[in-house]
Amino acid sequence: MAAIDRKPGIRPRVTLGRRLDIAARRAFPVGCTVLLMLACETPFGFEDQAVLLPASTLGCVYFWTLFRPSAMPPPAVFLIGLLLDLLGYLPIGVGVLTLLAVHGVTIRWRRVLTRQRFVWVWCAFGVLATGAAVVTWAFDCLLSVRLLPLAPALFEAVLAIALYPAIAILFARAHRGVADPERA
Amino acid sequence: MFRLSIQTRQALGRLTLPVLIAVAFGLMLIGKADTVLADRARMALADALSPIYVVLAEPLGKLRLALGEVTGLLSLRAENAQLRAENEQLRRWQSVALALDAENQRLKANLKWIPDPAPSFVSARVVADAGGVYAKAVLLAAGPNHDIHKGQIALDERGLVGRVTEVGARTARVLLLTDLNSRIPVILENSRAQAILVGTNGARPRLLYWQEGARPQEGERVVTSAEANAFPADLPVGTVHYSATNIPEVEPAAMLDRLEMVRIFDYGLNGIVPPETFRASADRRH
């Protein structure tokens, strides 16, 4: 059965090219996040580079959940979390749970946060990133049955907060440009 | 396609997140129950991604080289002076080493000494960081028909790097000696006392359980011990350095944060590998 365009208004005909264009724009947030995660794994040659991966992933998931939740649905967050666990050598499931929790809380706060200025969005991310780092640390301790140092987890949170403006600037531009399905 | 009412669809949409969170808990349990499964999944992913890492390693290496040249140009004079001084010192050491080597050969000939077999090695490029927040490891690109096995020993040009812990079809993971799970039997070179080098996730692993009366000296060289049949004797590990809280730590000789190439040595040791895996890998070799 052919899909019937039910929305009123005049739009260009839905050709194959246009459909591909829309699909690419829809996949941009998740695709970009995954590519950034892979890029974090290449050795740049500085110490504590392993913290870069969870920090940047957290920023990506938060940004897209807040500004375009339709492009960052829970199953996508789940898969990104699984990739984070595998690439970041976390116990399987910890990254998934942390990212899903961040996703859930962000969706809750969305109505208030999207109307605020950048500084408040950033502050909210700070709270979330710290919470996420502590949750990751707690589950890491629980699953490896020993007390791990908290300092690397807190450093992860600090790095995530410091990286967020850079991620937000890049993605905000993409959000209005290449990643906007309305512009296809 | 099913046609669902808007209410049902909304209810399902609201259910997705709790269900996925429950699945995440399930994954944790599975990961805890079967750790081999997680390791296998990780190595499969690393194998799939390694061609990308290999392609990226080339331009990244060039970039690092170019950056090194620029910073090197700035400190050219100072470095030159330092190198001249170091060269003088090394020349003196070279003559001492050559004399000692000749003497050593002579003594061994007199004793009818059976020489240790020369270990075979392969060189591999470090293509990715395989560590996490609480893990220190690197991923090596080994090529499709590599001969790297679990338990083999990784060295860079200066000293011990770590041990091969997982092997994939074209990659291998090396656990660094700074990892939280790393335990290496070592010998303090001055006193010949045994100790254990324990990784702390920091840049310098700690020395523990040294023999009574043989407290590690500041600046003392630390080498591997053949105890437990996990390492050959006398591979350079690093030098003792006391931390601010007076805990003896070891400054690794290897440049662990700037690893580009490592050599994987096969000493034929099976101290840390369970017998069945060792037998399986030996069978595969024949």
SSE order and pairing:
The complex is a heterodimer of chains A (184) and B (286).
Chain A: H1 16-41, H2 52-67, H3 74-87, H4 94-113, H5 118-144, H6 151-176
Chain B: H1 6-33, H2 35-74, H3 76-111, E1 120-129, E2 137-141, E3 153-155, E4 160-167, E5 171-176, E6 183-188, E7 193-198, E8 206-208, E9 221-224, E10 236-242, E11 248-252, E12 261-266, H4 275-285
Antiparallel strand pairs in B: 1-2, 1-12, 2-5, 3-4, 3-12, 4-5, 6-7, 6-9, 7-8, 9-10, 10-11
Helix pairs in contact in B: 1-2
Describe the structure.
The complex is a heterodimer of chains A (184) and B (286). Chain A is mainly α. Chain A has one domain (16-183). Chain A contains 6 helices and no strands. Chain A is elongated and about 60 Å long. Chain A starts with 15 loop residues before the first helix and ends in an 8-residue tail after the last helix. Chain B has 286 residues and is of the alpha+beta class. Among the domains of chain B are: 6-33, no CATH class; 183-253, Thrombin, subunit H. Helix content of chain B is 40%, strand content 24%. In chain B, helix 1 packs across helix 2. The longest helix of chain B is centred in the N-terminal third of the chain and has 40 residues, at 35-74. Chain B is globular and about 90 Å long. Chains A and B meet through helix 3, helix 4, helix 5 and helix 6 of A and helix 1, helix 2 and strand 1 of B.
